[in-house]
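Section 5: illustrative case.
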């Protein structure tokens, strides 16, 4: 049967999280003080306190799968529609009926969403988690993009020189006065972007691009901890955005800086700016944090080559699915 789990029963999903083979941030587990299971348990707890609904499948009194419905206030405000995410869709892969369990969980979450007036559901899943992927496909979710994730271990950091072709560019930290120019740059950089918002036929292209403008505006207003800009002759050519570990990550020994987003003005592309913007951010992190994680769409080969050239390693892939209710 499928039931809703009470807040006080969160610990019951601990065994599933402990054995979750597709858990993000798995490369951090080499450290004795890293507690990924505790991190994800607290994340689920936080979602519930923010108005999410935890759904579980139970078999013979033991939980064999669970999913979490999480509201998306930022997206909802921007698109002016109630939006939510299927933040977790995890089942016991040893169960013969794992596919049925995943579909039942997802169906319950979808029905719950409709009852609460949610208009849109997002789900992100590992590219290797075929149980979740097939359940999403059976329920009519459409894949919008595929992301490759990269991480860097700063114990391997050594000083590097910027590519010579970037010699005419100067890197510095952004300030409040740069915000309007960064918004304009985002408009140009992401107008032709192929990501999940732009691939959704229910979202106009201008609206999808505007979300990236809002992203950098929020970053300038304090959401991000560092914004590195590269400029040439007084004109900003690109930026990279970095965010320090969250309180929950620090609490559970996850020493990770998020490489949130990078953008370059189309006029200055293919001049080595990604390498410059990334390396300058790395210099801010070294000696203070152990890891950084960044991501790019699967067909952005230039960024992938840039990551690899700087010593970053691929740590996973992720599909994004959308469904309008």
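Designed sequence:
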């Amino acid at each position: 049967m499928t039931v809703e789990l009470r807040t006080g029963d969160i610990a019951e999903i601990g065994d599933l999280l402990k054995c979750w083979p597709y858990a993000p941030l798995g490369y951090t587990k080499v450290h004795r003080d890293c507690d990924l299971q505790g991190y994800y348990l607290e994340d689920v707890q936080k979602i519930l306190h923010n108005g999410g609904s935890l759904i579980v499948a139970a078999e013979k009194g033991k939980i064999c799968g669970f999913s979490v419905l999480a509201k998306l206030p930022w997206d909802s405000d921007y698109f002016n529609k109630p939006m939510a995410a299927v933040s977790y869709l995890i089942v016991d892969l040893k169960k013969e009926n794992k596919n049925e369990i995943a579909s039942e969980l997802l169906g319950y979450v979808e029905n719950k969403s409709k009852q609460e007036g949610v208009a849109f559901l997002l789900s992100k899943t590992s590219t290797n988690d075929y149980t979740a992927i097939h359940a999403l496909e059976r329920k009519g979710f459409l894949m919008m993009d595929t992301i490759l994730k990269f991480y860097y271990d700063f114990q391997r950091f050594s000083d590097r020189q910027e590519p010579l072709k970037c010699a005419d560019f100067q890197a510095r930290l952004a300030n409040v006065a740069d915000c309007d120019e960064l918004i304009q740059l985002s408009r140009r950089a992401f107008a032709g972007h192929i990501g999940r918002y732009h691939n959704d036929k229910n979202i106009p292209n201008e609206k999808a691009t505007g979300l990236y403008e809002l992203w950098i505006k929020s970053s300038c207003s304090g959401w991000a901890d560092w914004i590195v800009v590269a400029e040439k002759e007084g004109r900003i050519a690109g930026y990279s955005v970095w965010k320090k570990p969250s309180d929950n990550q620090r609490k559970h020994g996850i020493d990770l800086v998020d490489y949130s987003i990078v953008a370059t003005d189309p006029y200055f592309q293919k001049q080595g700016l990604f390498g410059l913007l990334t390396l300058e951010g790395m210099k801010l992190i070294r000696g203070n944090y152990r890891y950084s994680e960044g991501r790019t769409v699967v067909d952005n080969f230039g960024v992938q080559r840039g990551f690899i050239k700087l010593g970053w390693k691929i740590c996973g892939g992720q599909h994004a699915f959308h469904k309008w209710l």
